[in-house]
Request: fold
Amino acid sequence: MFDLANLPYWIFLVAGIVLFVVAISIGGEEELDDEGEFVIPVLGWLGIGRVPLMLLLAADLSLWGLLGWLVNVAFNLPKSPLDTLIFIATGIVSVLLGGAIARPLGRLFFASFSEDASSDRLVGCVGTVSSRQIPRFGQDKVGQVDAIDPAKNLVTINAVVPEDAQVVPKRGDAVIVIEHQPPIFIVIAQNSIDRDRWLGTS
Reply:
């Protein structure tokens, strides 16, 4: 169990757990831009661009560490010629399963971050983009926004911009929450043509 041959798997498992803790504490982060998934569709299937990258890495590393360690212990394989094959095989399986596991975990974690975010209390509130950018509605992806609710609480929400938005907000940009379509919020860039158009129609 504690053979030195299992050390890489222990390192992966501990690193994955640490990343889970960090991802939960900061609310996660979207790292892939709109073009990435379009150019390489398989990335979306692996979970890249659909869940926060840190959460995805945490799931992949944790699985790799756990699966590799279990296989070595179950078949008593440490220091055998199969070490390299097991290392590669469990890594591939972990990457394939990581996305499927990280997606529901992401929804669960962000639901807990956004306490009471299911209400419409955030509509009209201002926030700051914390992910790389905010994708358009209908792209099956979400970005993250740190919004301030009417009670001055900081709430992390999953957000998209309207399909016809002229401006795509990026990390650090200020946005306004204009609509709630559970479980996501529709936002637009502040001080933009989209804001002027929204104010004109509302």
